[in-house]
Amino acid sequence: MDTLRIRTPEGVQFSLPLAGPFIRLMAWLVDFLVLFAFTIVVTLVAEAIGLISKELAGTVNLISLFVFPTAYGFLLEWYGRGSTIGKRVFRLRVVDAQGLKLTFGQVVLRNLLRAVDFLPAFYFVGGITSVLSRRCQRLGDIAAGTVVIRQPRATQPDLRQLLAGKFNSLRTQPHLMARLRQRLGPAEAALALQALLRRDELEPAARIELYRALAAHFRTVVEFPPDVVEGLSDEQYIRNVVDVLYRTNAEPIRAQAGL
Fold first, then answer.
1. Residue 251 pLDDT more than 80?
2. How many CA atoms lie within 13 A of 253 on its CB side?
3. CA of 227: how far to CAs of 20, 154, 255, in Å?
């Protein structure tokens, strides 16, 4: 299985390409080189510190060998939206197995279990598990309910035509727009886009319910001022969100408003 297929209760299905064992290995090698370079630098610093205090030098070496490798994966995956440096190089990202954004607990669990996946050396257990897994998951992924997806370069959809030149009131709040982009995961963005692109394929009742559920979710992610969202239907709210997420170089607000 090379794709993660997700089907919503409203009958909308979308897929995300899964990262295979080989490309995950390449990403890990990049992360390993980053950690190795850091360890060399810290070792040199520790040698200099050892001239003053051997105890302090030992503490610095301990941090570089044991604490930093674990913190590296945890911090970058949490603050980097599921991507370490190696994953960014190969356009990979960790996501929830249901396509949702990662939770704090998932990031902690999958990184704590790296020690088990690494046994007996060089991710042997994790590599074998990912080869045998239907979703290319290592033990840490299985325990945390996560998968690693590929993010291939793709041309943006014709949002100018999709959005029909409608004024987007959300763009009057640039700081809230940035927060929305930061908090929404790739799967959530893809689902919103697919809901618009496949609008005519849905039964009217299913479409209304899907838009209602999506709009309700997005409103809880970032709360815009009442005067900004007043009078927006659920469908228009989703259109505005998609516009914010995908059309980053949108035309000025005055032009959109026809002023």
1. no
2. 9
3. 47, 35, 20
User: Per DSSP, which regions of the chain are E strands?
Assistant: 3-7, 13-17, 92-96, 146-150
| CB 23 within 8 Å of CB 203 | no
* Mean pLDDT estimate for the chain: 82
Name residue 3's beta-bridge partners: 17
d(CA 185, CA 92): 13
The dihedral through the CA atoms of 217, 218, 223, 229 has a sign that is: negative
Sign of the CA dihedral 94, 96, 100, 106? negative
Residue 240, classed as helix, strand or coil, is helix
Q: Which amino acid is at 114?
A: R
What is the Cα gyration radius of the chain? 22
DSSP 118: H
* DSSP-derived 3-state class of residue 201: helix
CB atoms within 10 A of CB 239: 23
pLDDT for 255 = 35
The β-bridge partners of 149 are 18, 93
Quick count: other Cβ atoms within 10 Å of Cβ 13?
Answer: 10
Number of residues assigned to the chain: 259
Question: The tokens 């000025």 sit on which residue?
Answer: 252
Of the candidates 30, 50, 48, 49, the one whose C-alpha atom is nearest the C-alpha of residue 38 is 30
Question: Position of tokens 């899964």?
Answer: 18
Report the C-alpha gap between 186 and 62 in whole angstroms: 37
The pLDDT of residue 123 is 84
User: Locate tokens 């190795």: which residue?
Assistant: 36
Residue pair 140/148 in contact by the 8 Å Cβ criterion: no
